[in-house]
Amino acid sequence: MNISERVTSELANYLCEKISQKVIRLLQKRKDLLSGDQSTLKTTWDEICVQVQGDESYYWGAYDHTVCSLIEGYLEELQQYELVAISLQTDEIDYEDEPEWVALSHDDLASYIARNYVYAKAMNWSNHRITAYLDSFCEYDGYTY
User: What is the pTM of this model?
Assistant: First the structure.
């Protein structure tokens, strides 16, 4: 990796990390839950973590839409060169083939950030509510799996 590729990669990673942290903070504040009143989960972020770590529910499309919509809001604030830097980190654009400063659509970039940053963090995120919820679905006939 040459210096310009490294700088581009570092810039893109910084921007994606920053966006994912903002999105997670917003989701941690949201209390509009789809898991029901009897759930140990308290935030939308808890629910997303459970969905990523366990099985996706019928409502996964709603969660994904929410995450991508929040990300798209932050993408609107970026400069064109920042969008291009993120685009170049995906498998969908190749600088050699696309010499112009062309960025992927906000939809595509939001999906990339959701998958590689937000959901990657959700896979490893834990708290007592998430653990209790996941444990309640791993018990079967008195055995815990």
Answer: 0.86
